[in-house]
Amino acid sequence: MLILSFESSCDETSAAVCAFEDGSKRILSNIIASQVETHKLYGGVVPEIASRAHCDVISSITYEALETAGVSLADVGAIAVANTPGLIGALLVGVSFAKSLAFANNIPLVPVNHIKGHIAANYFAHPELEPPFLALAASGGHTSLMRVSGFTSFEPIGATRDDAIGEAFDKVGRVMGLPYPGGAEMDRLASLGDPDAIKFPSAAVAGDNLDFSFSGLKTSVINYLHTCEQKGVGYSREDIAASFTKTVVTSVTKKLDMAIDATGLEKIVIAGGVAANSHLREGIEALCKKRGLEFFTPPKSLCGDNAAMIAAQGYYEYLAGVRADTSLNAYASGRNDI
């Protein structure tokens, strides 16, 4: 079957057409309209601007997705749309458009959780991957550890108590004078610096839990930068990026190691925008190799927000009988999270 899918939870508007048949999963088109250049002017995403930008392009990228895939709307078997979590105004654009398109053309509509979509992006790159597995979702808005017992069964077992991992990267990068989003440049700088130059506090919450707290780590780095500036002391952006990144990676792998012990799962999956960070990938891969576990992560092209990942999860939600009617709404967070 063919699924037309939409993603508009933050500052990327995306439409995709994906084919699912006899166990195979193929991306026929995955169109992404990025707003990075717009939000770069403000040093971060401005929700109202993001929502208006989604309105401007969602229709045109839908035509482009269908044309690129070489199909028509009549060929589509289901429409999937991310309806939670995310920026409420941004989500509403995608939900309203998908809902109208589905019911005007009598096509089944399937709501998809954005975080589940990130994890499902792995199914395109690793067709052999099947639950159960342990998943880490790491992005600009979310950081969660989940036990995935089935394609539609997700159990949160750990999460950040404040800032998301990607948010910490971006905010530290902004104070360092890096252009938004700072994550990619932080990754590059970290490869050039000394990871042991500066000691920063761990983001792994102390105790018998699987939670993180990136707020204190972020504040510690920012305070270090401000102190250097106030004293007129120079600092190495490379060393700061490397030290910060090492602290993030050791914090994540510490809790991931505990989660492996707690669940006994032997397959580890990471997903989300921060899964593109080379140091995080290497750290988790090294942990998996040490413990003899399988490691899965999507290609960098599918780590960020995109509609193909929504189609991947939407397919399994469709098989499970999930359908939405005209009352479908968007939710920033809360009851419709994992």
- Average pLDDT reading: 95
According to DSSP, the number of beta strands is 10
Q: Ranges with pLDDT <50 over ≥5 residues?
A: none
Q: For the terminal residues, how far apart are their CA atoms? A: 26 Å
Topology order in helix (H) and strand (E) letters: EEEHHEHEHHEEEHHHHEHEH
CATH superfamily of the largest domain: ATPase, nucleotide binding domain
The global form is globular
User: How many individual helices?
Assistant: 11
**CATH topology grouping of the largest domain:** Nucleotidyltransferase, domain 5
What would CATH call the architecture of the largest domain?
A: 2-Layer Sandwich
Helical fraction equals 40-55%
